[in-house]
UniProtKB/TrEMBL annotation:
<feature type="transmembrane region" description="Helical">
    <location>
        <begin position="286"/>
        <end position="303"/>
    </location>
</feature>
<dbReference type="InterPro" id="IPR005279">
    <property type="entry name" value="Dipep/tripep_permease"/>
</dbReference>
<feature type="transmembrane region" description="Helical">
    <location>
        <begin position="65"/>
        <end position="87"/>
    </location>
</feature>
<dbReference type="InterPro" id="IPR020846">
    <property type="entry name" value="MFS_dom"/>
</dbReference>
<dbReference type="InterPro" id="IPR000109">
    <property type="entry name" value="POT_fam"/>
</dbReference>
<keyword id="KW-0472">Membrane</keyword>
<keyword id="KW-1003">Cell membrane</keyword>
<dbReference type="InterPro" id="IPR036259">
    <property type="entry name" value="MFS_trans_sf"/>
</dbReference>
<feature type="transmembrane region" description="Helical">
    <location>
        <begin position="225"/>
        <end position="248"/>
    </location>
</feature>
<feature type="transmembrane region" description="Helical">
    <location>
        <begin position="390"/>
        <end position="409"/>
    </location>
</feature>
<feature type="transmembrane region" description="Helical">
    <location>
        <begin position="124"/>
        <end position="147"/>
    </location>
</feature>
<feature type="transmembrane region" description="Helical">
    <location>
        <begin position="184"/>
        <end position="204"/>
    </location>
</feature>
<feature type="transmembrane region" description="Helical">
    <location>
        <begin position="365"/>
        <end position="384"/>
    </location>
</feature>
<feature type="transmembrane region" description="Helical">
    <location>
        <begin position="335"/>
        <end position="353"/>
    </location>
</feature>
<feature type="transmembrane region" description="Helical">
    <location>
        <begin position="457"/>
        <end position="478"/>
    </location>
</feature>
<feature type="transmembrane region" description="Helical">
    <location>
        <begin position="36"/>
        <end position="53"/>
    </location>
</feature>
<protein>
    <submittedName>
        <fullName>Peptide MFS transporter</fullName>
    </submittedName>
</protein>
Length: 489
């Protein structure tokens, strides 16, 4: 399907959407619905995998199920590489975003309609591929709405992040209700409906995007198309073969994604830094992104345990009773988005008010990583309790700290990726940031095997301590990193 004509003017002075460009509203909406479907499905995915067949699940051991969820989450962000490459070399960001939304719809329908492990396998692969393509390109297109020196950029990304979390709030609540009352596949079906609404909404707003959103900054020569197609087919066949011979298994998926993501990150940094088509200033800025990448990995390795360790913890340990009614497990995942919805506007207003006086990007990253480590230490007073021993308010408080850390790092990371990116690697730098999320997410799934409910203190203390050390180290190095950023604050 051909794309609509896209306007050519960059809306530098457009303030029709809460002081931001009008086109941000469309991207806000499609990302909201994508996150509704993503988190709605993920809110019930882990318990679907490890609940018994009698309970409507698949009866997979908890550690293996956690590894699958972590690997899937990592694969979502790992697939941003493919989405970014297609955007930068073949189709442009806008077309890739639209096609990715269609793939996500098909993935959710597969998960809802196909039974057993086949439905899980087909559905998760398609959702991972589609979500990766959508995430990298939606973020990149948001970056095209602003000039390089527009002080609204960080505030705009914070507002965009609000859309993400509106979807993340409602998704687990509604899919959780359907799962408890009608079964898992009804919950998965609702996720498919949500993404379909996002696809329809995005189609009607595509024409308002700037021409840059449809540009192909580094076109692949026509002579290379055949080679690229053969590599793609060969890669798919190789993956299928590895699954069939037992090299790739459910119990080692997270380790495989970790290795693949590390290799991809190293290759991407090498590719960009060694390019002769970037300037010395651009190369310096890419070097500045490296310590931010490391801090981001440490942050996400802890944060993404909301969907692995915290889900198991909420199912077995958390007192979810409210006036005699037991809250669904999936609803715990809507607590963090509530705080995001409340605080994202506060942070956006704060950065706007401070303007050029706001903390630098390295300082924000350092604070976010250290605070995330501190949040893990807050689990220690409740460690070792029995069933229903952890008060719901305690988890609410801990997730509030998660949120503060997230707002200091995640939307700022998206913004940093666009402003530190060389002009020829704009979308692929966003993919690099998502690679840090992929690596951290896969590590979060791999770490599940070390979580022992009967001896929790070492787990929370060691991981929290590591994140605090990483944050402090980046804080000490903030000035040298800022110097490498060459004027980008």
């Amino acid at each position: 399907m051909s794309s609509p004509e896209i306007t050519s003017d960059k809306p530098a002075h457009d303030t029709r959407f809460f002081g931001q460009p009008r086109a941000l509203a469309n991207l806000f909406g499609v990302e909201m619905w994508e996150r509704f479907s993503f988190y709605g499905m993920q809110g019930i995915l882990l318990i679907y995998l490890y609940y018994s067949v009698a309970e409507g699940g698949l009866g997979i051991p908890e550690a293996v199920a956690g590894g699958i969820v972590g690997a899937y989450g990592g694969a979502v962000y790992l697939s941003t590489i493919l989405g970014a490459w297609l955007a930068d070399r073949v189709l442009g960001s806008e077309r890739v975003l639209f096609g990715s939304a269609i793939v996500i719809v098909i993935g959710h329908l597969s998960l809802a309609l196909l039974p057993g492990l086949w439905g899980v396998g087909v559905g998760l692969v398609l959702i991972a591929l589609g979500s990766g393509g959508l995430k990298a390109n939606a973020t990149g297109i948001v970056g095209t709405l602003y000039t390089a020196d527009d002080p609204r950029r960080d505030a705009g990304f914070s507002l965009f992040y609000l859309g993400i979390n509106l979807g993340a709030f409602f998704g687990p609540i509604l899919t959780g209700l359907l799962q408890e009352n009608y079964g898992f596949h009804w919950g998965f079906g609702l996720a498919a409906v949500g993404m379909t609404l996002g696809l329809i909404q995005y189609w009607f707003g595509r024409k308002n995007l700037p021409a840059e959103a449809n540009a192909v900054p580094n076109p692949l020569p026509r002579s290379s198309y055949r080679t690229a197609i053969l590599i793609a087919i060969g890669s798919v066949l190789a993956l299928v073969a590895l699954v069939l011979v037992g090299v790739i298994r459910a119990d080692n998926l997270s380790s495989i994604v970790i290795i693949a993501t590390l290799a991809a990150a190293i290759a991407y940094f090498t590719l960009i830094l060694s390019s002769r088509r970037i300037t010395s200033t651009e190369r310096s800025r890419v070097w500045a992104f490296l310590p931010l990448f490391i801090a981001s990995v440490a942050f996400w390795a802890l944060y993404q345990q909301q969907f692995t360790v915290l889900t198991v913890y909420s199912d077995l340990r958390l007192d979810r009773h409210i006036f005699g009614w037991e809250m669904p497990v999936s609803w715990v995942q809507s607590i963090n988005p509530i705080f995001i919805i409340v605080l994202s506007g506060v942070f956006a207003a704060l950065w706007t008010r401070l303007g050029n006086r706001q903390p630098s990007t390295p300082a924000k990253f350092a604070l976010g990583t250290a605070i995330m480590g501190a949040a893990f230490l807050l689990f220690i007073p409740f460690a070792g309790g029995g069933e229903n021993s952890t008060p719901l308010l305690a988890i609410v408080g801990i997730l509030f700290v998660f949120t503060v850390a997230e707002l200091l790092l995640s939307p700022i990371g998206l913004s940093a990726a666009t402003k530190l990116a060389p002009s020829l690697f704009q979308t692929q730098m966003v993919a690099l940031f998502f690679l840090s999320v992929a690596l951290g997410t896969a590590i979060s799934g791999w770490l599940v095997q070390f979580y022992d409910p009967s001896n929790e203190v070492p787990y929370f203390a060691i991981l929290g301590g590591i994140a605090i050390v990483v944050g402090l180290a980046l804080g000490v190095a903030a000035k040298p990193v800022l110097a490498l950023m060459k004027g980008a604050h």
